[in-house]
Amino acid sequence: MFNVKEIRKDFPILKREVNGKPLVYLDNAATSQTPKQVIDVITDYYQNYNANIHRGVHALSQEATDKYEEARNKIQQHFNAAKAHEIIFTSGTTHSINIVANGFSSLIQKGDEILVSAMEHHSNIVPWQMLSERTGAVLKVIPMNQKGELQMDVYDKLLSDKTKLVFCNHISNALGTINPIEEIITKAHNVGAAVLIDGAQAAPHLVADVQKLDVDFYAISAHKVCGPTGVGMLYGKEKWLNKLPPYQGGGEMIAEVTFEKTTYANLPHKFEAGTPNICGGIAFGAALDYMNKIGFEAIANYEYELLEYATEELLKIDGLKIYGTAKNKTSVISFNIDGVHPYDIGSILDKLGIAVRTGHHCAQPIMDFYKIPGTVRASFSFYNTIEEVDVLVAGVNRAKNMLL
Ligand code: PMP
Predict the structure, then answer these.
(1) Which residues have a catalytic role annotated?
(2) Which residue's CA is minimally distant from atom 4 of ligand 1?
(3) How far apart, in Å, are the Cα atoms of 131 and each of 97, 137, 270?
(4) Separation of 404 CA from ligand 1 center, angstroms?
(5) Which residue, judged by its Cα, is nearest atom 14 of ligand 1?
(6) Phi and psi (nearest 5°) for 223?
(7) What's the start-to-end Cα distance of the chain, in Å?
(8) Across the beta sheet with 357-359, what order do the strands follow?
(9) Any residues with CB less than 8 A from the CB of 337 and at least 6 apart, and which?
(10) 165, 195 contact by CB (below 8 A)
């Protein structure tokens, strides 16, 4: 049974105060909080078996290697990847996307087309722009409507045999839209294009089955799923990962090195140069264990209740407008109040102990689309409560009265 009161006991940080008020943490889309089950795994690593992996013959190195590879297996199982070596440990979604964008430099030619959705995070735009500058490939945008839904009829028209790559987020960080990625992937494959899905915002709310989706690449960050920062994953189909050249050169990623020539290691090591975030990888596995124990279905159902309630209550505030009203959306609410700058609302909420994000949320094209400087974004997790929604709504009312 899902019991939010019990779940909150797992998160030490939720007990703290900010500015003399109980913390109300509603910036989960930026980073999630860490339960003690994961913090304990981090402590255990540094207290008991901190060592470099894949190299030492000694016991600590072997233990650390086993735990790290065990974490890779957990991640493989979680996303139902066919093979463990299709899971590459990275420093996070941004790193994962850059591995693919860099690798495609040798597979893309002038005049080829790459499609991007209009609601991407900058980390799923800029690497592809850099790719298109390097190669002469043309970057085209799948537009969205006022609700923040992709215009799939335009997508159909943009696809052609020139399309080599499509990249899109599973869920938008700024709007909460859940994109129809099954359809996006199937249609891209019909014209022979590869697809990268940025799963950074989806991973905390749902489980993507990469084989069922038939997706070519899927990227996530551990810090959005109750894990630590500085670690994440790139899933890639074996056939693609074998085609792509390595992103970084260094130790761990080689088979043999001479001054004349280097040959590369097999997957996944080819993409894992240098000493990785060993503890982070192990804690990433523990974080998925923690979330799976609660259950993603229970998490999604509960977060949907929070979303519905918060939407209803916030809309009672005169002059408040929500950006991102897609039919399928997750527990993210981006809003503004007529005549008030989002930053000012965020600053007053902070004085009340309420953590929200304000600004363009690393998605400036979305703000340009709505012709706004930014929004206030409240993003809810499974450890938030209905009472916290009430505190948010009271805080927004108070900010409005102070600022207008
Ligand atoms: N894509 C999306 C949709 C995101 O929300 C984020 C994080 N805000 C990223 C990519 C980048 O993730 P990271 O900073 O962990 O690399």
Answers:
(1) 362
(2) 200
(3) 11, 8, 21
(4) 34
(5) 94
(6) -70, -5
(7) 44
(8) 320-323, 332-337, 375-379, 357-359
(9) 317, 319, 320, 321, 345, 396, 399, 400, 403, 404
(10) yes
Per-residue pLDDT 10s for the chain (404 aa) are: 899 999 999 999 999 999 999 999 999 999 999 999 999 999 999 999 999 999 889 999 999 999 999 999 999 999 999 999 999 999 999 999 999 999 999 999 999 999 999 999 999 999 999 999 999 999 999 999 999 999 999 999 999 999 999 999 999 999 999 999 999 999 999 999 999 999 999 999 999 999 999 999 999 999 999 999 999 999 999 999 999 999 999 988 999 999 999 999 999 999 999 999 999 999 999 999 999 999 999 999 999 999 999 999 999 999 999 999 999 999 999 999 999 999 999 999 999 999 999 999 999 999 999 999 999 999 999 999 999 999 999 999 999 999 99
Which of 93, 95, 284 most suits a substitution to test ligand 1, by most atoms within 8 Å of the C-beta?
A: 93
Out of 168, 173, 330, mutate this one to test ligand 1's pocket (max ligand atoms within 8 Å of CB): namely 173
Q: What distance in angstroms lies between residue 348's CA and the mean position of ligand 1's atoms?
A: 26
Tell me, in angstroms, the distance from the centre of ligand 1 to residue 55's CA.
32
